[in-house]
């Protein structure tokens, strides 16, 4: 997921060469919804309920659809519009770096707002090391060459705040429901596609100039980065919990900077690979694969699957 979502920032930057920011967000959402809809139509995934009987392909409870409306707005509509708008003013590399603030937003939402996780010292340490790695990649001592537009940066942070909210919200209200991952992803993206279609007159009717790189970027962004990647995301969320899942975004600045260097001619400085190593170490701690030493009698954080 880190590779796919890291490349999404490059695809957005390329696509903005011929379409508006609203059309970028509109296209990726609608294409992702179509791709996931076809998968659900062909596979018709079902998950057994408490009685062991497979449930319907789509949920029937109205409250579930309300939850998915909230999720669609906070995981797709607002973040996609925010990032696409921001990349008019900041580089794709900087946007991908800001995306790595998602874990800290998620930790705050999951622990303080939704209370669906309790993080022990090791996992908090991992979040901190990961954020330190991101700061090393950003290189604040060279910030004058990276800042770009303040409004663009704030738009990136708005997007990651929405992502953090979504991880906690899904964990609290939806992750324990018997909904297949493909269906879950389809509803998240599909409902957001309906919202985007309703917004078409306001965001998607400006003139366009298409060429093969722009078309290819929109297709990759929609089908792969917005469609298939969300099935993976739901599976990982259920296995790792919200904070563990969001640490995937630590990888995105590494991918984003590498693609910027290779395809956009950006220069790779010494601090970026150093930051990448710190990011990987942070992921290992945040996922519980590495642990700090504990004093006798100290208990570890409750596993995400048990935190309700």
Automatic annotation (TrEMBL):
Topological category with respect to the lipid bilayer: Multi-pass membrane protein
One term under GO cellular component: membrane
Positions of transmembrane segments: 20-42, 63-85, 97-116, 123-144, 150-169, 181-206, 212-232, 244-264, 270-286
Keywords tagged on the record: Membrane, Transmembrane, Transmembrane helix
Domain of life: Bacteria
Subcellular location: Membrane
InterPro entries documented for this protein: AA-Vitamin_Transporters, EamA_dom, EmrE-like
Residue ranges of every copy of the EamA domain listed in the record: 2-138, 151-285
Family membership: Belongs to the EamA transporter family.
Protein's UniProt name: DMT family transporter
UniProt source species: Agromyces protaetiae
Upper lineage: Bacteria, Bacillati, Actinomycetota, Actinomycetes, Micrococcales
């Amino acid at each position: 997921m880190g590779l796919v979502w890291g490349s999404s920032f490059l695809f957005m930057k390329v696509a903005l060469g011929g379409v508006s920011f609203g059309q970028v967000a509109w296209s990726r959402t609608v294409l992702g919804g179509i791709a996931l809809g076809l998968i659900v139509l062909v596979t018709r995934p079902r998950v057994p309920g408490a009685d062991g009987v497979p449930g319907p392909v789509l949920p029937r409870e109205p409250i579930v659809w309300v939850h998915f409306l909230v999720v669609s707005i906070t995981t797709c509509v607002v973040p996609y519009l925010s990032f696409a708008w921001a990349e008019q003013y900041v580089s794709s590399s900087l946007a991908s770096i800001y995306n790595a603030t998602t874990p800290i937003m998620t930790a705050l939402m999951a622990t303080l707002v939704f209370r669906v996780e309790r993080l022990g010292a090791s996992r908090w340490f991992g979040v901190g090391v990961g954020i330190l790695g991101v700061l090393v990649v950003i290189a604040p001592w060279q910030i004058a060459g990276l800042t770009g537009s303040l409004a663009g940066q704030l738009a990136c942070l708005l997007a990651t705040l929405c992502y953090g909210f979504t991880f906690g919200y899904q964990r609290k209200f939806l992750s324990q429901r018997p909904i297949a991952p493909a269906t879950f992803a389809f509803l998240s993206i599909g409902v957001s596609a309906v919202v985007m279609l309703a917004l078409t007159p306001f965001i998607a009717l400006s003139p366009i100039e298409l060429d093969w790189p722009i078309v290819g970027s929109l297709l990759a962004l929609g089908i792969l980065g917005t469609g298939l990647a969300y099935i993976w995301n739901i599976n990982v969320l259920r296995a790792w919990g919200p904070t563990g899942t969001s640490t995937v975004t630590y990888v995105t600045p590494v991918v984003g900077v590498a693609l910027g260097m290779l395809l956009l001619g950006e220069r790779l400085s010494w601090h970026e690979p150093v930051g990448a190593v710190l990011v990987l170490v942070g992921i290992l701690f945040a996922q519980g694969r590495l642990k700090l030493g504990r004093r006798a009698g100290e208990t570890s954080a409750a596993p995400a699957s048990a935190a309700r």
